[in-house]
Amino acid sequence: MPSREVTVAVLGATGAVGEQILRNLEERSIPIKELRLLASARSAGKKVRFKGEEVEVQEATPESFEGVDIALFSAGGGVSEKFAPEAVKRGAVVVDNTNAFRMDPEVPLVVPEVNGDQIRHHKGIIANPNCSTIQMVVALKPLFDRFGFDRVIVSTYQAVSGSGAQAMEELTEQSRAALEGRQGPREIMPVGKLSKHYPIAFNTIPQCDVAQDNGYTLEEMKMIRETKKIFDDESIGVTATCVRVPVFRGHSESVYVELKEEFDLAEVRQILKEGEGIILQDDIANQEYPMPLDTSGRDEVFVGRVRKDTVNSRGLNLWVVSDNLLKGAATNAVQIAEKLVSQDSQ
Amino acid sequence: MPSREVTVAVLGATGAVGEQILRNLEERSIPIKELRLLASARSAGKKVRFKGEEVEVQEATPESFEGVDIALFSAGGGVSEKFAPEAVKRGAVVVDNTNAFRMDPEVPLVVPEVNGDQIRHHKGIIANPNCSTIQMVVALKPLFDRFGFDRVIVSTYQAVSGSGAQAMEELTEQSRAALEGRQGPREIMPVGKLSKHYPIAFNTIPQCDVAQDNGYTLEEMKMIRETKKIFDDESIGVTATCVRVPVFRGHSESVYVELKEEFDLAEVRQILKEGEGIILQDDIANQEYPMPLDTSGRDEVFVGRVRKDTVNSRGLNLWVVSDNLLKGAATNAVQIAEKLVSQDSQ
């Protein structure tokens, strides 16, 4: 049956993720009655194109959410903490792309391909997981269903767009400067709010997000905690090393997973090939494997380099690449919104 | 006692590694009577500076090795296969930086900090391990001695200079082109001799070296096989994912090692700090960790991000960075040559 038309608000509409949310809303199936673009006072007044028309960005206030059905938030954790309760109070369902509510036991943490059924349990807020978590759990889901697994050891190769549009600009300027033998700006990477900044151009930085007391970074702990919550299995042991690399868009991940039983590699490939939201690109003999430049602008999760550990017959290596701004953020949020709308109209 | 003076030949003197071998020979302690710079016919006649003087590069022939004591080879596997027997026949000891003889049971595969005692067992050829193996085994050696380990799961972030000077030029040109919105040259990466070439600028490529029948790449199999041989322990299970990243110099590695017993993290840090050839740079709270831009031009192996697995109390994460042209190639070869000279003079 046709879904009812909804009023959608996008908070953080001028950011790197907000822009991709708008592209997604243009392309996907949510019937939009009214679209409200919200941002900080600094961005208010900007004009943004949506379906061929110019829409003016308004400063977010609690009243901005009056009459809103679905509010997509991607303006930072502090902004979410401030405005999510206001939006919920006014009857909106918030799909929050920040870290603010992800581990709140009252808030479903949803990747539609993995645990889309959790959406119906929301109490006003649904959290979108961290980008590096989303693509990993999509790749692991069909293996979890068929074999189960105990342990995941993941090393990431994360694009700078995970730190926003300014970080992309910094990589551009640093790269240009390095090629000309100059030093470029160092103001954002690895973490804008920290005191030390390092060049990312032609470098790797083994820090995404702030340090935690246990020696891990917050990004690493997000992957560890969120994976357990999404699979609803506290026994899953994840260890992660999160690294920034000089790529604009598309996170890559080297994922080692120890399945609960021995497996046939051909069966694993078939399962991945049929997995929801996955494109298997796995033929090293013909140099076929996922790379971030190819997956940029795509909504799916790409999996390749599927290999059995040479020693441990339950150990499986995967190379997982996805567009961190799309499936890692905007696409996943809009997919949740779509499910909300279709549930609502059933 | 003072070592005797030796005649040294460098085959591949004009390549990316050859150049670093010359810088190393200038800085280190080998007393050189005569230096012969050898290369293919194409590079013959070039002049190279050594200790302030110009030395002319000669075309390598079997006769080039007459009177040579130590020959340092880094001109590709095929060249080594052709000339190593000729050099040995004429009394030289060959330190070979290619893959040609590494797994030959008659040839010691040496990283001085790890198994320098193997040098004395040579029969004319000593192999220098693969760059990505060398830095990993240096970092693991003190842990191997204290705890032992069964399993290593490594993901690499490898610099383009591992594919030679032309690959560095390609990254430069591709980066410049991408920043100007053009497509740059695509002739070398990921593997020059294969048919498909992909951009490495602002990308990651999960292929270093050619594919093997088991789905691994040769680079990955080198790490697996060489680690067992260097530690002289066939029971060590290594699985590797080798990835090229847009970095000019310096390989990074995310290394997960499962020790044979539970460990105290403070002890592990102390052991690494005292480890031969290692610089521990591990303080995430103060944003201190190794990065390739900082380690470029340094001879040591840098270790940071030392963390215990949150689940497996025998699991240890390390971030290991080293200059692939130095400790990964030239420095290790010259260190072997130094040991040869000092053994000889004892």
TrEMBL record, chains A, B:
CDD domains annotated for this entry? ASADH_C_bac_euk_like, VcASADH2_like_N
**Active-site positions, per UniProt?**
C131 (acyl-thioester intermediate), H251 (proton acceptor)
Q: Which SUPFAM superfamilies match?
A: Glyceraldehyde-3-phosphate dehydrogenase-like, C-terminal domain, NAD(P)-binding Rossmann-fold domains
Entries under Pfam families matching the protein? Semialdhyde_dh (PF01118), Semialdhyde_dhC (PF02774)
> What is an annotated GO biological process for this record, any one?
'de novo' L-methionine biosynthetic process
UniProt key word Oxidoreductase: yes
Q: Which residues bind NADP(+)?
A: T14, G15, A16, V17, R42, S43, S161, G162, P185, N324
| Family from the record | Belongs to the aspartate-semialdehyde dehydrogenase family.
Question: What is its biological role?
Answer: Catalyzes the NADPH-dependent formation of L-aspartate-semialdehyde (L-ASA) by the reductive dephosphorylation of L-aspartyl-4-phosphate.
* Annotated protein name in UniProt: Aspartate-semialdehyde dehydrogenase
The organism encoding this protein is: Paludifilum halophilum
